[in-house]
Structures are given as C-alpha cells and as structure tokens.
Amino acid sequence: MSLHLQGWTKPKQGVLFVVTGASGTGKTTLVREALSRIPGIHFSVSATTRPMRKGEKDGTDYHFLSEEEFIALQNKDSFLESAEVYGNYYGTLKKPVEEALAAGDSILLEIDQKGAAQVKIKAPYAVSIFILPPDIETMENRLRNRKTDSPEVIKRRLAEAMDQLRHCKNFDYLLVNDHLLSAHDQFQAILIAELLRKERRNDWVEQFSQ
Predict the structure, then answer these.
(1) Quick check: is 94 in a domain?
(2) How many domains are there within the chain?
(3) Residue 126: phi, psi to the nearest 5?
(4) d(CA 144, CA 132)
(5) Is residue 5 in a domain?
(6) Which residues of the chain, if any, have pLDDT below 50?
(7) 3-state DSSP helix/strand/coil % of the chain, to nearest 5
(8) Which end of the chain has fewer CB atoms at under 10 Å, N or C?
(9) Residue 152's domain spans which residues?
(10) 44 near 92, Cβ under 8 Å?
C-alpha cells in the first residue's frame, strides 16, 4: 500500500486505540504494519510477572514486575486492564499511556475482548476496533495452517475465538480481514481518520477560524 503522509503532524492529544480479534483473524499483522507506516503511534508495553526471557529488555518488551509489585499496583488502581494467564499476571499501566497521550502520541493496545471491556470502563475515550475473519471456516484453517499447535490447543483456541466474536457488537469499528492488502488500507484509514477529528486538531481550528 502506498501511504503518503508528508507533512503529517501528530495531534495535541493522542488517541488510545484498542484492537481486539480472535486468534486467526490477523490482527497482529495489521497492527505491525500500521505501526511501521503511521508516525506518532506506538505499541503499548505491558507489565507482567512472568520471568524475563533471553534477549528481552525491561521496559521494551515488557515491564517486568514481581507478583507483589503487580498486586500492589492493582490495589492502587494503576492498570487500565489486567488479567491472570496461566499463573502469570499481565496488565496495561495507566501512567505511561496517559503521559504518551498528553504528549500527542497515540497508543495501540492489542488485547482480548475481556481486557478491552476493562479499558472501555476506565478509559471511555478509547477507540475500539474488532478484527473479524471472513467466516469461521477461514479462521479455523488459518489456525491449523500455522502448524504450531496440537489439535487440542486448536480446539481450545477455536472455542475461545467463538466466545470473543460474540462481543464484536460492543466495539466502535468492525473490520473483516478477508484480503490482507485491503484490510491494511481499511485499518490504517480508521487510525488516520480518528487522528484527524477536529476535536484533536484545535490548533488548526484556531488557525483557520479567525
């Protein structure tokens, strides 16, 4: 896709984008491409209690915390969303997100439906996007074609995916990822349109409304 953003400036107040989609819908691919093409949008770095893996850096891959630190922050309502996954805690810290938005930077948060629901309560200004598969069969084929999961894992992922898809009605935007290039165009169009809303461009309004 040819995306021309010469002279692009970030808004005075950034946007918190929440992206959700079941496994096999291609949401991570769409997010990565958008991050590489649209200036001023950054991926949210989550906090976690899982051990740091070789090659990972604190503050870059994750904010690595002890379980005691994580729970203490939960008790202080310091997370936009948090969850326990297979014995480890994960969450999105409020402070770094709010600081980024205040500086005009936008944050892309890729999380599941339950996390998105938490964010919508604590940050109702967030813009939510749900990535849909063309149909259930295509989603199942994508999961199987990865060839990285056992049949039992695929079965579990499909069940989880079906549960997530039922909540798509709660999101601001719905995008069907059928043809990848078209999906990239549509996804980035949503982001850019939100960044150009007049309430985020008060400097232009003041400049040209005299």
Answers:
(1) yes
(2) 1
(3) -65, 145
(4) 17
(5) no
(6) none
(7) 45, 20, 35
(8) C
(9) 16-202
(10) yes
Phi, psi of 83 (to 5 degrees): -160, 160
1 assigned to some structural domain: no
Amino acid at residue number 95: K
Give the integer Cα–Cα distance in Å for 117 and 128: 10
205, 147, 185: which is closest to 30 by C-alpha?
Answer: 185
Question: What is the b/e burial string over 96-110, where b = at least 16 CB atoms within 10 angstroms of the residue's CB?
Answer: bbeebbeebbbbbbb
H-state helical runs in 103-150: 113-122, 136-145
Order across the sheet with 16-21: list the strands: 41-43, 106-110, 16-21, 127-132, 173-176
pLDDT of residue 152: 85
- 178 to each of 20, 108, 154, 175, 187, how far by Cα in Å? 16, 22, 21, 9, 12
pTM for the full model? 0.89
Taken as a whole, the chain contains a residue count of: 210
What's the pLDDT at 105? Answer: 96
Does residue 3 lie within any of the structural domains? no
What pLDDT is attached to residue 2? 62
The residue behind tokens 């948060």 is: 109
CB 30 within 8 A of CB 131: yes
Token pair for 176: 């069907």
Distance separating alpha carbons of residues 54 and 56, to the nearest angstrom: 6
CA dist 202 and 206 (Å) reads: 6
Q: Report the CATH number at residue 144.
A: 3.40.50.300
